[in-house]
Specification:
single chain
C-alpha cells in the first residue's frame, strides 16, 4: 500500500508540477510586446488581413505593369509603326528631275503604239503597184512554197482514179513470178507423165 501510494505520487501531474509562485504580467512589458510581435509575424490571419478588404472589389488591369509591357512589345513588333508610309513624308519631287526624264524617255521608247504609228499611217497613204519586181517575186515564192499547190496534182489523180490494163508489163511480170513460185505448176508436168510408161521396155 505504501509502495502504491508512492508510485501514485510519482505519476501524479499535480505533484509533478509545483508552481514556485504566481505573478502578473503587465501588457506594456518589453517581453510581452516582443512576444506579440513574434506571434503577429508568424500569424497567417494577420498576414492575409491586408487582402481581406479587397475581397469582392473589382480590378481594372489598365495601367498595370504587365499591360504596359504588352503594349510596348506590340509597338516594337508592329510593322505598321516600323515602316513609315511615303505619304507621311512632306516631300515634293520636281518634274524635270533626271529620274523622271529618264523614265519618260524609256516609256516613249518602249511604247508599241508609237513604234507602229508611222507604219500604220504609211499603210493607208502609200499605194504599191501590183507589177513591181518585189510583188511579183513574192507571188512566185508563195506559189513555190504553197503546200496546197505542191499536192494539187497528186490529189487530182486520186480523184480521177487509176485504170491499169491486163496486158501491162507489170501485170505480166507479176503473173510470171507467181507461176514460177507456184508448187502446183512445178509438179504439173510430173503428174501428166505419171502412168504413161507402165509396161514399156524402154522409153526414150
Amino acid at each position: 500500500v505504501v509502495l502504491s501510494k508512492k508510485c501514485q505520487t510519482q505519476v501524479s501531474d499535480i505533484d509533478y508540477k509545483r508552481y514556485l509562485h504566481q505573478w502578473t504580467c503587465l501588457p506594456d512589458q518589453n517581453d510581452v510586446i516582443q512576444a506579440k510581435k513574434a506571434y503577429e509575424l508568424q500569424s497567417d490571419a494577420v498576414y492575409k488581413a491586408d487582402m481581406e478588404w479587397m475581397k469582392g472589389v473589382g480590378w481594372v488591369p489598365i495601367g498595370s505593369l504587365d499591360v504596359v509591357k504588352a503594349k510596348k512589345a506590340g509597338e516594337i513588333l508592329s510593322d505598321r509603326l516600323y515602316r513609315q508610309h511615303p505619304d507621311s513624308l512632306k516631300f515634293t519631287s520636281l518634274s524635270n528631275a533626271m529620274p523622271f526624264v529618264l523614265a519618260k524617255t524609256n516609256a516613249l521608247n518602249m511604247n508599241d503604239r508609237l513604234y507602229k504609228e508611222a507604219w500604220n499611217k504609211d499603210k493607208t497613204t502609200i499605194h504599191v503597184m501590183p507589177d513591181t519586181p518585189e510583188i511579183t517575186l513574192a507571188r512566185a515564192n508563195a506559189v513555190n512554197t504553197s503546200r496546197k499547190l505542191y499536192r494539187q496534182g497528186f490529189e487530182d489523180s486520186l480523184k480521177k482514179g487509176y485504170d491499169i490494163k491486163a496486158d501491162a508489163i507489170s501485170i505480166k511480170a507479176a503473173k510470171a513470178s507467181r507461176d514460177i513460185a507456184s508448187d502446183y505448176k512445178y509438179k504439173e508436168g510430173f503428174r501428166k507423165q505419171t502412168g504413161h510408161h507402165i509396161g514399156v521396155a524402154a522409153s526414150r
